[in-house]
What does this fold into?
Amino acid sequence: MRTALDTNVLSALWSREPLGSQIALRLTDLRDRGGLVICGAVYIELYAHPNITPTFIDAFLLETGIAVDFAMEEDVWRSAAKSFASYAQRRRRSGGGAAKRVPVDFLVAAYASLCADRLMTLDADLYKLDFPGLTLLGL
It folds into this structure.
């Protein structure tokens, strides 16, 4: 079973957050059970991590066996667009105003839903409503 990773998983690991050791163990287990992958949108977000260089990112991904899928097919983009639009409409109807979540969250979930078997994220609650069929893994 291939597991897609959300940016927050690797960011927490690199930031040495208290969950870092648990994340490292979980990633090793998931890699051994079928592999790990990030989509291009996650790769973009990783570049914004403070004190992390592009060389570090590429070396880390290579050393840990995390694949990067830079090609997202049309169905991923359409799924993300549909889910983001539904979210934005719900937000407006509820009186919450403009969308607070960013479209990249929807790309990550749509990618995981269509191109992997599950998504590991530290923000599972963000995805439950918009991607009900997506298997979400936390710690």
In short: The first helix runs from residue 7 to 14.
